[in-house]
Amino acid sequence: MSDSDRLSPEAFAALGHLLASEPFAGWSLSALRAALRAAGQPEGEADRLFPGGAAEMIAAFFAGVDHAMVTRAGDLAGLGLTARVRALIASRLAVLEPHKEAVRRALGLLALPRNAGLAARLAARTADAIWVAAGDRAADFSWYTKRAILLAIYSATLIYWLTDTTEGAEASRAFLDRRLRLVGRIGRARARFSVRLPCRGSAARAS
């Protein structure tokens, strides 16, 4: 099965057994077999559910995180766009918090050249999930720009979060807030610059 979004409940349940193992044994079929065996489940299910191995397991994990992030964030209707984005990223960090070692190892595997395509695909899916949940429906060129900016903010925050030991990841949330404020200042500065700078056609007509 190649599309992690269509994985069965049994596949996500199997991942749950792996994520519950202490310490986390890694993203491999052998680790998943051991986790299923420890839970009293047929270990052969690992190969049936994830024939694509570790890459497919990681894709399924982050698909579940995308869904849980939106569900946990709840109703965002009363917030502005930036506040919605902030709430969704904070929600995502809360979902990931119990699985920090699993996330660290997943990122290590995704950084390998052979997984570059998968890493890009998962990142794009996460950015899209956040923007859609935040209420953004734009289909113009800004669609790409906003998602690129969001990925830069989220990626930096995630790396910071991996070493954050503060209660409730407070330091990571503060880091996220600083990044969002910086992007806001840049956006306002660009808007002011665009207003002051005449377009080429206007300048030509004025001369």
Structure overview:
Pathway: Cofactor biosynthesis; ubiquinone biosynthesis. Belongs to the COQ9 family. With 207 residues, the chain is mainly α. It has a single domain (4-206), classed as Tetracycline Repressor, domain 2 (Orthogonal Bundle). The protein has ten helices and no strands. Helix 4 (54-73) crosses helix 5, helix 4 packs parallel to helix 7 and helix 5 (81-96) packs antiparallel against helix 9 (170-196). Residues 200-207 have low confidence and may be disordered.
Number of strands: 0
Number of domains: 1
Order of SSEs: HHHHHHHHHH
Mean pLDDT: 87
Class derived from helix and strand content = mainly alpha
Q: Which architecture name does CATH use?
A: Orthogonal Bundle
Instruction: Name the CATH homologous superfamily.
Output: Tetracycline Repressor, domain 2
CATH class, named: Mainly Alpha
Helical content stands at over 70%
Low-confidence stretches: 200-207
Oligomer: single chain
Biggest β-sheet: count, sense, barrel?
none
Pfam family, one: COQ9
Keywords: Lipid-binding, Transit peptide, Ubiquinone biosynthesis
Pathway: Cofactor biosynthesis; ubiquinone biosynthesis
Family: Belongs to the COQ9 family.
